[in-house]
Every structure is written in C-alpha cells, then in structure tokens.
Specification:
The complex is a heterodimer of chains A (about 500) and B (about 120).
Chain A lengths: L2 H23 L26 E2 L4 E10 L2 E6 L5 E5 L2 E2 L3 E2 L3 E5 L5 E6 L7 E5 L2 E8 L2 E8 L4 E8 L7 E6 L5 E5 L10 H6 L1 H4 L11 E3 L3 E5 L8 E5 L13 E2 L8 E5 L7 E5 L3 E7 L5 E6 L13 E6 L11 E2 L2 E2 L3 H4 L11 E3 L9 E5 L3 E6 L11 E5 L17 E5 L6 E7 L6 H4 L7 E6 L6 E5 L3 E4 L2 E4 L4 E8 L6
Antiparallel strand pairs in A: 1-31, 2-36, 3-4, 4-7, 5-6, 7-8, 9-10, 10-11, 11-12, 13-14, 14-19, 15-18, 15-26, 16-17, 19-20, 21-22, 22-23, 23-27, 24-25, 28-29, 29-30, 30-31, 32-33, 33-36, 34-35
Chain B lengths: L2 H21 L19 H13 L22 H10 L14 H14 L2
Helix pairs in contact in B: 1-3, 2-4, 3-4
The chains are: A mainly beta (about 500), B mainly alpha (about 120).
Chain lengths: ~500, ~120
C-alpha cells in the first residue's frame, strides 16, 4: 500500500471513529448551556405589549407593573383584581408576602401582609381569600379577609425544602385543594439542597411519603457542607442529610406529606389526601367537566440523584393514585439508561424495592425544565378554546437544573387535555427567550394564567426577571408584571 | 439484524450526525402567535402533531430548541429522521417499534417534514 493510501485510510478511520463517538455520545457533553436566565440584566424592566405575540384575534394589555415576585392572581364578586406577591424567591431573597388589590389604572393597594413566604397561590371564595403560603417555617393554608386579617386554616405543612405549598384552589365540592412539593429533587437530601439555602437552616428536614414505602437501601456519598472539616457523609432516600438507609427499610407514611395533592375544608380540620407521588404539583385547576388536573414540575439534573430529560407533566388526577416519584417519570421507570441518563450522567437506580402502584399516564407532556406552573381552563365561548387548559411556563433555571441548548419555557401554552396537543398561545415576538435575554420588553417568567370570573379575559402573572449563574438565581425585586389577554373587539376570534 | 442492514443504519446515523452539526441550535420558530404554525393538511400530519407532542416536543418544543437542538430546519429527508428516531443519537434515546409503531412514526415524519416548510 502506498504512503498516500495509508494516509487516506488513517484519515477515514479517524473520521469514522469520531463519527461513531458523536453518534454514541452526541454533542451534549461539549455544548455550553444556554438557559433563558443565563444573561445580564441592568434594568429597569420595561413591559410593552407590542413585544408580546398572541394568535390572531387576541390582544395583550399590561395590567400592573413594579411587582415583587408576584405568583398568582384572583378576583372577587365585583371583578376586582388581586395579585399575590410571594415574599420569597429562589436565590434566598426574602421580602414581605402581600396580597394587593389592583385598580383599573394599575394602582396597587395592600390588602394584607404576611410574615414569611413564599405565598404561592390564592383563591377567592365567599368573602375570603385562601392563600397557599407559610405559617412560620412551615407551609400553610391561610385565610385572608377583605380587611386584611390573616389566620391559619392549616399549618405544619412540610415546606421547608426545595418546593413549597402551592395552588390553593377552590373545588366544586367547596373544599380547598392544594399541592405540596417535595423537599428534594429526587428523594435524597444532598449538597444541592445546601445550595438552595435551606439545608443550613433545617439540617434534619427530608421528604415524608404519604403511605409506607420500602427502600432498596441505596445510599449516596457527598461532601458535608455543614461542617468546616473535609468530611463526607452518606445519605439514603427519605432520610435526613447524613443518615444512611438500609435494604428493605420501611419508611412510615404520614399526613401531611410531601409530593401530594391534599384538600381541606375552609373551616380547617385535618387535611385529606387526594393523590401522591408527585414531585412539585404546582398548578391545579378544575376542568369544566369538574375533573381535577395538576401540572407537576419534573426532575432536575442536579444533586445526588440527577435525572436527565424529564418534561413537566399534566395529569388528570385519579383519587388515591400514586404518580411515581421518586422512581418514575410519568409511567416510565427512571432506570432506563437510554432515556434518563447520558454520556456524563448515568440514569438513576430505583430507590424503592416495591412500588405503591402503577403510575397513571400523563394527559400531556410539556417541555423539559419549562417549569410549567399556574394554569386554568377556558370556560367561555367569548374567549374561545373551551375545555383547553392554559399553562404559564416560568422558564428554565439552567444551569442549576441542568443544561439546555436554548431557553425553555418563558411563555403560555394552550393544551388539549384529551389529545395532549400543546400549542403556544402567548410568546415573545422574539421567541428565543425571556425579554431580558433577547433585549426586548416582552414576557420574562409567566408563573400563573387565570381567567377572569366570566372567563372572557386571561390574566397572566409574570414573576419578573430572574437571571441565573453558576452561583444560583438572582431575582430582581420590582420587575413583576400582570398581563391580560382579551379577544380583539370583545368576542372570540 | 443482517450485517448489511446494520451497516445501512450506521451509515444513516453518521449522515444524520453530520446534518445535526450543520443544523445547529438556531431552529426557526413555528407557532400560532407569530402566524408560522405549520398547516396540517392531512390526517397523518394531525396525528403526527399529537404523537410529536407526546414523544418529541419534551426536548424539541414545537420543533424548536429546548433541552435538545431544534429540528425545524434540520436538513434531513424522512428516512433519516426515521433512522434517528429508531437508533437514537447521543443524549437522544432510541424509540423502538413497541413504543412508536411504524404507522405512528410515519405520522411523526409527516408532521416533522411540514415543520420544515
């Protein structure tokens, strides 16, 4: 063989090897993350409806600006608009949780203030507001009167971790339904929870299942950020940080629990379990049929048990069912190496030796890391799309939650719960990311979408600017906005 | 699987890999708010959209980039799209016939090709 032929052969071999490596591992390990928060923001935030796009036949308006960490909106019998400010944001920024009345000119009057946040969701019924919030360190359902008196309907909820008490929602049965998030990403307390900030404050906190579960006995070794020493600790599922689990160990279920939907009478009493096995059931809404739906924030690629590639899921809630956390994504088990791992991170092993049930299939699959949150169903022919659910997507928190190729979320989607079809409804005119990412004056981080009482207008709560860096989230106070989408000309398109 | 068929699949995957690199992440947006939603003229495309939203949109929302690169401007013919779905690539998992049937994959490809227009 001539020298030239040998060179060609070697080159062909090298190209073939490179191509096979690319096929096997792809470009994922090499590409940088391009999350929507991975940008600079100088401020001030400007909100301009002209930079927001909705389908033909609809118009966008700005209702209120200058809000600090708004999370939800509700309405009284007169159609007055009330917006909730959380009083806390990821990034460990603590402010005062508030309920504000918004006037037609965008003015804001304080109805009530709380002592600790986050206040994540609010419903109005029969002269009272019901807030998914906090009482002291713990999660709570609060009642707020129109004169601003705050009392606790239910306290002691396990909201000391990554995820909190969400989405106080009035059911057709007159009970308050709410979601309770998990302490952790995937069942194991780790250094990611220290980065969140809460592990330092509550070093013994961990997830509590709603019913007894039996562990496989898997343990995870990490450094110990709670000490100055160069030491490591071993932590098991459903155990405090630094406490190992054993094979066939039974973790007792208890109420209230993590990763669940619960309900309670407006007068208080003991909470009742509706369904469990969720990670962060953030959005709850009743369909016109009376069926309860939930949108569940799926796993992140972080911590001791990172999970790759799990989009948020919309479910039609089956009473009493177990929805799979911490071992399933939808009805798929997580130990599928092809699906939930990649070249630099293996798929997680199964934590439970016996599963409490077979998780139901989702009604719709939403974008990975989109943080699909507050939602409501259209019930009005005036607005149109009756029976569809409109879901606000806060947008990714990359790189903290994992890497993304481009910003994910930062919009409102319309979902057909029967077919699972997901259609964008409200996006930025430059749809490649939040306004702070694209240098425009459109949406930042939509966190709730709620229809007015007559169903003719869709209110979209925009949490505001939250940039991300390797050090974590940097939320900006005073950048929250409430938007409104109305049919152009007053009728359905 | 025959050696010849395996070779064809490997070749398909190599071409797909090259095309992916060329395509990059900057996929054009397709959606109702900007008046760029794909026109679904056939039942296969309508079925394909629902299947795409179940299996693909999680990482390629509306065909644009998200967790994974966008595919709306991916310069691949249908048979290479099929090959990538069956074989997977890098962080993208393979989807077997048990998960996505041949008929369903045809519908997904019909929709994906419409997304490119």
């Amino acid at each position: 063989m001539s020298r030239g032929a040998r060179v060609v052969l070697i080159l062909v071999a090298l190209v073939a090897v490179a191509a096979v490596l690319f096929w096997r591992y792809g470009a994922f390990p090499l590409l940088p993350s391009r999350g929507g928060g991975q940008t600079e923001f100088e401020g001030p935030r400007v909100a301009d409806a002209a930079d927001v796009a909705v389908p033909a036949g609809y118009e966008v308006e700005v209702v209120a600006e200058g809000l600090t960490f708004p999370t939800d909106v509700t309405f009284d019998e007169q159609g007055n608009v009330y917006v909730l400010e959380a009083g806390y944001s990821y990034g460990e920024v603590f402010t005062v949780p508030r309920l504000l009345r918004v006037s037609a000119d965008g003015g804001k009057d304080v109805v009530a203030e709380g002592e600790s946040g986050p206040w994540n969701g609010v419903a109005y019924s029969d002269g009272s507001f019901y807030v998914a919030g906090k009482d002291g360190d713990f999660g709570a359902i609060l009642r707020v009167t129109t004169t601003g008196e705050v009392t606790t309907v239910l306290g002691g909820l396990p909201s000391l971790g990554d995820h909190h008490t969400n989405a106080a929602t009035m059911g057709p049965d007159g009970q308050i339904y709410f979601g309770q998030g998990t302490a952790t990403n995937a069942g194991v307390v780790g250094t990611d929870n220290h980065a969140f900030g809460w592990l330092e404050r509550h070093p013994d906190f961990h997830d509590v299942p709603c019913d007894d579960v039996t562990l496989a006995g898997l343990n995870y070794q990490t450094e110990n950020p709670l000490t100055d020493a160069d030491d490591n600790v071993t932590t098991g599922a459903y155990r405090p940080f630094g406490t190992a689990s054993t094979s066939d160990q039974v973790i007792s279920g208890a109420m209230p629990c993590n990763g669940a939907i619960m309900r309670i009478e407006p007068e208080g009493g003991e909470p009742e379990l509706v369904a469990w096995g969720f990670r962060n059931p953030y959005g709850l809404a009743f369909a016109p049929t009376g069926e309860l739906y939930v949108v569940n924030n799926s796993y992140d690629e972080r911590g001791s048990r990172p999970v790759y590639g799990t989009g948020d899921l919309l479910y039609r809630v089956e009473e009493g069912a177990w929805y799979g956390w911490p071992d399933f994504h939808g009805d798929l088990q997580l130990d599928d190496e092809d699906r939930f791992g990649h070249a630099t991170a293996p798929a997680p092993e199964t934590l439970l030796s016996r599963h409490p049930g077979s998780p139901p299939a989702p009604a719709a699959v939403l974008t990975v890391h989109s943080s699909s949150n507050g939602m409501s169903f259209s019930t009005s022919e005036v607005f149109g799309h009756v029976g569809a659910v409109f879901i606000a997507q806060l947008g990714d928190m990359a790189p903290q939650v994992g890497k993304v190729a481009m910003p994910a979320g930062f919009k409102v989607v319309r979902v057909d719960p029967d077919t699972g079809v997901v259609i964008d409804f409200m996006v930025n005119r430059d749809p490649s990311g939040p306004a702070s990412y694209t240098g425009t004056a459109g949406l930042e981080r939509p966190i709730s979408a709620k229809f007015s009482p007559d169903g003719s207008e869709l209110y979209v709560v925009d949490f505001g600017v939250m940039t991300m860096s390797e050090q974590g989230p940097a939320p900006r106070e005073g950048t929250g906005v409430v938007w409104r989408v109305v049919p152009a000309g007053g009728g359905a398109p | 699987m025959s050696r010849r068929r395996a070779g064809q699949r490997t070749a398909s995957a190599l071409v797909a890999a090259t095309a992916l690199v060329l395509a990059g992440c900057g996929s054009p947006y397709r959606g109702e708010p900007l008046g760029t939603a794909p026109a679904l003229d056939t039942q296969a495309q309508v079925d394909g959209r629902a299947l795409f939203d179940r299996y693909c949109s999680e990482c390629h929302p509306g065909g644009a980039a998200g967790l994974a690169p966008g595919i709306n401007n991916k310069p691949l013919p249908g048979w290479l799209v099929r090959a990538q779905v069956r074989l997977g690539m890098g962080a993208m998992p393979p989807f077997s016939r048990e998960t996505i049937s041949a008929v369903e994959l045809d519908a997904i490809v019909a929709y994906v090709l419409e997304l490119k227009k």
